[in-house]
Automatic annotation (TrEMBL):
Residues 7-177 form the AAA domain. Signal peptide: none annotated. Pfam families: AAA_31. Keywords: Plasmid. This is Atpase, para family protein. InterPro entries: AAA_dom, DNA_Partitioning_ATPase, P-loop_NTPase.
Amino acid sequence: MDRKKTEIITIASIKGGVGKSTSVLFFSNILSHESYKVLLIDGDPQASITSYFLFKLQEQNIDIERYNLYEIFKQRKYIENCIFNVSNCIDVIPSSLELSSFNSESIPLQDNLLEKRLLAVKSKYDYIIIDTNPSLGHLLNNALIVADYLVIPINSDLWAVESIDLIIDATKKVYSEDLLPNFLVTGALERQSIDKEIISELETRYRENLIGIIPKRDDIKKTVFYRKEFSLNNDYYQEYKKSLNNLLKKKQKQKRNVQL
């Protein structure tokens, strides 16, 4: 199909441990298998995405302490020089621990830096997927402002559900148009009552915004931890694929429909 415009997916939560970075990896893998060109931006100082691809970055003798998102924000490096190929159809901009200081710094037009820097490379990609810092602030604002799609992973933790409104409020403060939140339930135990209750509540409150439910599987953690090949036939992979399809079929900001 013809690609009309690069689409940016921001995956955000102000609570850690909800499968945010894992969802970034699965979505990028699914898109790359469809031969879409994907750029991953690691906007989280915890650098989970960078860690996942660390061996491949080291094989290329890349100094991620000098070439990363923070250096791009500080205008010490051009964005083109901080993009590295790590897989078929997948490039990445690494994170660094220094990025943690970004929220406390004072920089002119601080919330729009990513939007400006991406202008130089955006057209090279079909999709850009951003992993975010699990807290409110300038880092999250940058990722929200450029987003065409916002995905909020949620697990069965009550705080994860209660934090939804905080993310939505943050979106309204920095975004001039309506950016609809899309919820992805991760690590769901099909037979556990609390998970059923939370899913039921989400379906009641946000039925139109619930894009999928990912079952809890130990193999998900093993795949990411040991950097194993993604098994395309596993039920959780298929649920991620279905969820991504549901997301991209939504007409947000008059986007085209996409079927993977």
